[in-house]
Design brief:
By secondary structure, the protein is of the alpha+beta class. The protein is built from two helices and nine strands; from the N terminus they run ααβββββββββ. It folds into two domains: 27 residues; 93 residues, Immunoglobulin-like (Sandwich), CATH 2.60.40.
Length: 141
């Protein structure tokens, strides 16, 4: 009986610990619990930027500061090619004409395309800019 007692104590301890802290014993891999992978391109790769207005209002885009804003009607899609002017970074500023917040959803539908879908946002100020960095990363602010 004395040889069985230590095994019984260990089993009871494990059982009590797992019922008091049920989440402590759960494990998962990053593949099962991680969010989506960040969108990234190969540094130096020539990228086509596709912008789609999924709102009900007019959205304006400004690719280069100081240029006239480009209007984007509801449902309209515009495409921009990355310039060959030696600039590795590319930026785009966007806003709803009525001042409503926007949500920017980025995706990579194929090897050389970055899609930016502008949707109605839920919180002010919402997303307002997209940056494609020289290291291949894409950020939305």
């Amino acid at each position: 009986m004395s040889k069985i007692l230590p095994f019984a104590l260990v089993a009871v301890t494990v059982l009590i610990t797992s019922t008091n802290h049920p989440n402590a014993s759960l494990a998962g891999t990053c593949a099962s619990k991680c969010g989506p992978h960040p969108i990234q391109f190969t540094p130096g790769q020539r990228i086509q930027l596709e912008v789609v207005n999924r709102t009900l209002g007019l959205v304006k885009l400004e690719k280069i500061q100081g240029t006239d804003p480009i209007p984007l009607r509801p449902g309209q899609k515009l495409q921009f090619m990355q310039e060959d002017d030696g600039q590795a970074n590319m930026s785009l500023v966007f806003w709803d004409e009525m001042g409503l917040p926007l949500q920017a959803i980025v995706s990579k539908p194929n090897f050389g395309t970055l899609r930016l879908e502008l949707r109605p946002g839920k919180r002010n100020p919402g997303d307002r800019s997209l940056y494609m960095l020289s290291d291949g990363h894409v950020n939305v602010y």
